Amino acid sequence: MKYTFPLKSIFLLSFLFLLLSSVFPVYAHKVNLFAYAEGNKVVVEGFFSDGKVAKKAQIQVFSPSGDRLVQDQADDDGVFVFEIPEVTDLRVSLYAGMGHRAEFTLPADEIRGALAAAASGGAAAAGGESSAPARSAGCWRNGRGPTASSSAASPSRSG
């Protein structure tokens, strides 16, 4: 007796293959956003999960009440730096096109710490200590890996 493979099964398997193979490339382009306070400025870095920077990504910064405080775009390295607009939790939003969005909340405590370190920087530098504030777990500069942590802030990622 000869067995024939049902045509429905071929279509179903083909559909499942196409569906599953299209999911993984989307995940490979997930955008990540990190922000940290450094002195009287906030540094925002955006990049995709494959390591490519989010060039010219649109950046918006909001207060806890939802007021937009800053709006601009990242440079060719996916970095945007701005002066701290107020000492409060800052919700940083990045849009890198084609639905790639990410948000990160920079806690007010980290901002206060960076401002205090910058204010006491002259005295610390005279004593031989580094005046540079520690960076948060969100810093992914130079090699795209985490550096020294000054807070346990974790990024919110979305694709």
**What portion of residues belong to β-strands?**
25-35%
Under CATH at level 1, the class of the domain at 30-126 stands as Mainly Beta
Rounded mean pLDDT score: 76
Q: Major sheet: order of its strands?
A: 4-3-6-7-8
Low-confidence stretches: 122-159
How many helices does DSSP assign? 4
CA-based shape: elongated
Q: Main β-sheet: number of strands, strand sense, barrel status? A: 5 strands, antiparallel
Question: How much helical structure, as a percent, in the residues?
Answer: 25-40%
CATH superfamily of the domain at 30-126: Macroglobulin (MG2) domain
Count the beta strands.
8
- Secondary-structure element order, as H and E? HEEEEEEEHHHE
Which structural class best describes the helix and strand composition?
Answer: alpha+beta
Distance linking N and C termini: 51 Å
Question: What is the CATH topology classification name of the domain at 30-126?
Answer: Immunoglobulin-like
Gist of the model:
The strands form 2 sheets. A 5-stranded antiparallel β-sheet has the order 4-3-6-7-8. Strands 1-2-5 form a 3-stranded antiparallel β-sheet. Helices cover 27% and strands 29% of the residues. The chain has helices spanning 7-27, 108-119, 121-126, 141-144; strands spanning 31-38, 41-48, 58-62, 68-73, 79-83, 90-95, 101-106, 156-157.
